[in-house]
Amino acid sequence: MTWSDAEKMAKIKPGSFVSIQLDGSTHSLIFTTWVRPERGGTITKYSAISGNNKGMVWPHEPLSLPASDLVDGMSAEALAKYDQEVYFGVPPD
């Protein structure tokens, strides 16, 4: 959430594993690309693909990164739980 665009692009690359929480359940995705804003500004969206739907792989509309205000004020326990459910698995260099 707080990484600069350069850090995002350097650390999270196509093929990275993404785990997100939607409607109370966790979903697994494969990161494909960052979506740059048309008028400049900070990158807040990315594209990904996933499977597990009738045996097919599906592209997703651009997904939003979690906003930092989402975790503001969370207790250490709540942050730990959030980190286990929503994360990017970055492959080693």
Fold topology:
Elements: H1 5-11, E1 17-22, E2 25-35, E3 45-53, E4 56-59, E5 63-64, H2 76-85, E6 87-89
Antiparallel strand pairs: 1-2, 1-6, 2-3, 3-4, 3-5
Describe the structure.
The protein has helices at residues 5-11, 76-85, and strands at residues 17-22, 25-35, 45-53, 56-59, 63-64, 87-89. It is an alpha+beta fold. The chain has one domain (5-89). Strands 1, 2, 3, 4, 5 and 6 form a 6-stranded antiparallel β-sheet that branches. Strand 3 (45-53) and strand 4 form a beta hairpin. It is globular. The mean pLDDT is 82.
Compact overview of the structure:
This protein is α+β, with helices and mostly antiparallel strands and 93 residues long. The protein contains 2 helices and 6 strands. Strands 1, 2, 3, 4, 5 and 6 form a 6-stranded antiparallel beta sheet that branches.
Which features does this protein show?
93 residues; alpha+beta; six-stranded antiparallel sheet; globular
Range of strand content: 35-45%
User: Which overall shape is indicated by the principal axes computed on the Cα atoms?
Assistant: globular
Q: Name the poorly predicted regions.
A: none
What does the oligomeric state look like here? single chain
Output the number of helix runs: 2
Q: What is the count of distinct domains?
A: 1
Q: What is the percent of helical residues?
A: 10-25%
Number of strands: 6
Give the biggest beta sheet: 6 strands, antiparallel
